[in-house]
Amino acid sequence: MEKNKEKIIFSGVQPSGELHLGNYLGAISKWVEMQNEHKCIFCVVDYHAITVKQDPEILRKKIIEAAKIYLASGINPEKSVIFQQSAISAHTELAWILNCIARISDLNKMTQFKDKAGKKQESVSVGLYDYPILMAADILLYNTDAVPVGDDQSQHVELCRLLAKRFNSQFGDTFKIPELIIRKEGARIMGLDDPNKKMSKSAGSSANYIALTDKPEAAMKKIMKAVTDSGKEIIFNKEKKPAISNLLTIYSLLAEEPVKELENKYKGKGYGDFKKDLAEITAEFLIKFQKKFNSFTDEEVKEIMDEGAEKIKSVAEETLRRVKERVGVIQ
Prior knowledge:
single chain; 331 residues; mainly alpha; Rossmann fold; 2 domains; 3-stranded parallel sheet; globular
């Protein structure tokens, strides 16, 4: 990759569970906009996926599926790089070196680990605990300027920044300090069954999310069954009306209509009318999205990821070489 004045953007998603509308609205759709102005690198982070138990056959399919979702969302491999994390061994090598400058106290602050592990913190994999260090390596390998993520990952990016600064202080100027980009509107799409918890592919019930591969008819039913608040007013108020506020956010982002306009549009109308229209808009989005998704063969996707890895492998290897030289393991 040639050096130029464009910002380098890096982000990725795990090929596990069901990638859903929250992933798309909170992160991936923002990436699509960025590729027209920046040099974008988008990773299928399969090593992150195996921090919890995976069925190997399903994982292989999910890796392809994640890349297809990138492509169906509008990420163009001629403008951006799409690649599979495990194809470049520098990710795990740099993660080990960063492990050696990270502190237990750094990782003990990570709230996402506490949320995921719950009361089983002593029995989950070390990988799940160490996940943020590998994420830092992912980001720092490519001289990343900015990282667009959902707000649930912001703490991990802050740790990445801390580790980069610590390494630079200890061994000399080596890493860029990446910025954090969070989409203000729609950064955290909440569950359809519980507006107090985010839409999650690891949710216990499929009623929580709309998967990007859901049949449009099934998605419409989920919208119609989505929980609502007391009262009848369709207004945006996260504290008093979290369920309707969440549905308004989804509607606004899919229809590209400001929330205020939607509030006026549904003034005097009930939840039923509002949800019926949102269900139809969601179905229309999925029909278009899935048409693109199904237009790519597995072989085409594998080739795109292989080519992506080849484009950026030299950047990762040069960063790793510089790091190893600074810490004294090569000369």
